[in-house]
Amino acid sequence: MIAMFSLADRRVRLCLSLGVVVAFATAALLRHASVHAQTPEQLTIYSSQSNYSASIIDVKGVPYVGLVDVMEPLGTIDARPDGKKYKLRFTPPGGHAVEAQFNEGKDKAKVLGENLKLPANFVLQNGRGYVPLSAVPQILSKLLAKPVQLHAGARRMFIGDVAARFNVELDKSTPPKLVLSFPIAVNPAIATEPGRVRLIFRHEPVVAGEQAAYKFDDPVITGATFSEHDGEAELDVSATAPLLANFADGGKTVIVAAAPPPPAAPVASAPAPPQASQPAAAAPPKPPAAPRFLVIIDPAHGGADNGAAITPSLLEKDVVLALARRVARELTNRGIPAAMLRNSDVAISLDQRALSTNAARPALYISLHAANTGQGVHVFTSLLPAANLSRSGFLPWETAQAAFLDLSGVAAGSVAEELENRKLPNLTQSAPLRPMNNIAAPAIAIEIAPPDDKVENIAGARYEEQVAQSIAAGIAAIRSKLPEVRP
Amino acid sequence: MSRRLVILFAVLAAAAVGLSIYAMHLHRRVAREAQSAVEQQVAVAPAGNGPPETITLYVADDSDASVRKTQVSVVLPAERSERDRAILRTLMAQYLAAGTPHPVGAGSDIRQVYLMGEDTAVVDTNSAFADAHPAGVLAEKLTIASLVATLNANDNKIERVKILVNGQERDTLAGHADLRRFYEAGSIGQAELSWPRELGAPARGRTGRE
After folding, report:
1. Are residues B108 and B173 in the same domain?
2. With b meaning 16 or more CB within 10 Å and e meaning fewer, what string describes A23-57?
3. Is the ipTM beyond the 0.85 threshold?
């Protein structure tokens, strides 16, 4: 080494520089790898009940998904490991229970009593059963008695006859228009770039129509290409001029046309005529939107934030997601619209939860939690001193909930009464829970603890159903007391 | 590139990798030793010079979601903030004892109590207090309520309490209870006057369903 360092200084400096570069490159690669390891890919699932997503995990290079993650929104599922076996019992809404059995480390499974060979071995991790992604359509179609289509490369799955094919028609009038007709109302994200407009369908089961790529003999709109990737569908319309997209027919039609040219600059010597009459002529005043009653359900935690470890294999984030889906169903059954802040295992910050809720202006916000402290159901309102704040004005972020404490108390008391009617152990208290203080709407938090001495019973189907029914019935009973808000 | 340069580059690359592995090993060892030291540390009331004094503790009980008032005798330091810290460490010792009705994480401790003016206390807890605290709305709320109520019961000038973790502000204690705010001793007392409340007896009279 000494002999080497006696070489010309330039070479030594070069080597040292290379060493530093190698070190930085290694660190960057490690960081890149760790970041990607924390953001699992998602499978987007479309069904007649709901559209949702499930995390995909990589097992020895093969993509796997959790059976409970995929099936829970579709009905009632009871899945538990039993030694090396994993037994699953699924009951669709209004249907009969069906069963399947898997074996850890084996590729042989039994679904509805029939043998099934999986393309790779069944995996049990932390008490959760995972099957190869490519086996999911076969398993689900048997259990649900419905056709299931998997677009594996795009990470999209369609359960039942939900795929929405669209028609493309070019209207060559002046200016030319591309008319996209869908069988369902769509609400794509629209990205306009020079010479193209992209319609990105994140929530709709949109699939290609007769063809995936279109070429038009038109000087303005030259083509359109449909593609699917990363759990989304995308229609990319190319043009020689800036494009604009407009909706018609209640969202079932999207019209893409050239953007109108910018207005000519006003001439200083000839002032423009007053424009006051134009808006009234162009856009008649909209009728006021109908009031609507919306309940926001917030399953706490998600993603890397597991919440409480109820047992080593039972995490709070999973328990509350299952409960949230059940509560949403029970509310819907009672004619109460409900929306969930997350419907898959994704991370949402506390501030983002409050922001999304406040933007939706709900009649009620419910935060759902689970823990193994105590027994039964704990119903909380915010631990803030009541304040005489106007609900219609600006509210301080840190204490926004103070203006709604009376209504929050009404909701908490009503839910507690329903829990009591079902003889479920319960208590009602106030708690300093984030982000409840930031919610500008009546808000309660519900924490479920095990119903008895067996901690794992916290995730029992019967208990979950009783709690969800209590929550929904409690809200339905005081619906008239909570303010309906305009969207 | 000459052969010697290639060798030097390879040696540097190997050294970089080797040092990275060694650094990770050292990092893990230091973390293990720190954790071990924390776990061996048991919060006990520090010895004072004077005679034993009777203090009031509000001790949480998970089984019925209550915070019960109890009195113990301890020797306390004379200085006010040290005295407040000793009282909270006595409370913490109750939670760390075997068979406690409200367990907290092993090694939980009160690092310091800072007094801001007459009525505000900032309680600096150690990392184990938050990192190993049982997660849950009720469990976390009971801990905070018992700390605030105990502090206020023994130093009744203290009306506002803020909790830090290892000298830093945190969003939540263990994922639920808000640690960004100052807690008013009065509002905690007013909100929870009915403690202990038996399980199965929900608050009534505000349902609006009558």
Report:
1. yes
2. beeeeeeeeeeeeeeeebbbbbbbbebebbbbbbb
3. no
Neighbours of B107 (CB within 10 A): 21
pTM: 0.61
Amino acid found at A409: G
pLDDT, one tens digit per residue, over B24-36 is 888 787 776 655 5
Write out the residue range of the structural domain in which residue B79 sits. 53-199
Q: Is B78 in the same domain as B152?
A: yes
Q: What domain count does chain B have?
A: 2
For B89, which DSSP code? H
The minimal CB distance from A369 to the residues B4, B137, B205 is found for B137
Judge whether B200 is closer than 8 Å to chain A, CB to CB: yes
User: Does residue B116 share a domain with residue B85?
Assistant: yes
> Same structural domain for residues B36 and B57?
no
Which residue has 């706490």 as its token pair? A300
Q: Which of A11, A307, A425 sits opposite B135 (nearest CB)?
A: A307
Alpha carbon distance A458, A309 (integer Å): 12
The model's pLDDT over A389-437, given as tens digits with 9 standing for 90+, comes to 676 677 888 889 988 999 999 999 999 999 999 999 999 999 999 899 9
H/E stretch holding A23: helix A9-38
pLDDT score at A193: 74
Tokens of A5: 């360092």
What DSSP letter does each residue of A302-320 carry, written as one string?
BTTB---EEETTEEHHHHH
**CA nearest to A434 within chain B:** B178
Segments of chain B assigned E as strands: 53-61, 66-74, 110-116, 120-125, 160-165, 183-184
Q: pLDDT for A115-131, tens place per residue? A: 999 999 999 987 889 99
CA distance B80 to chain A (A): 28
Residue B147 and residue B114 share a domain? yes
Residue B46 lies in a domain: no
Q: Is the per-residue pLDDT at B201 higher than 60?
A: no
| Strand-strand pairing, A128-132 and A62-66 | antiparallel
For residue A486, the Cα-to-chain-centroid distance in whole angstroms is 24
Q: Do B33 and B65 have their domain in common?
A: no
* DSSP category for residue A138: H
Q: Within a domain: residue B205?
A: no
Strand partners, A185: none
Least trusted range by pLDDT, from A253-262, B67-76, B189-198: B189-198
A183, A204 contact by CB (below 8 A): no
Q: In which band, very low, low, confident or very high, does the pLDDT at B135 lie, cut at 50, 70 and 90?
A: very high
Which of B9, B177, B197 faces A427 most closely, judged by CB atoms?
Answer: B197
Q: Which residues 391-420 of chain A have a CB within 8 Å of chain B?
A: 398, 406, 409-410, 412-414, 416-417, 419-420
- In the block, tokens 């360092």 appear at A5
Q: Among B136, B178, B204, select the one facing A432 at the smallest CB separation.
A: B178
B contact residues 6-25, partner A, Cβ 8 Å cutoff = 7-9, 11-13, 15-17, 20
Alpha-carbon torsion, ordered B159, B62, A411, A358, to 10 deg: 60
A319: distance to nearest CA of chain B, Å? Answer: 13
Does B79 share its domain with B6? no
Hey, are the CB atoms on A434 and B171 less than 8 Å from each other? yes
Nearest chain A residue (CA) to B209 = A478
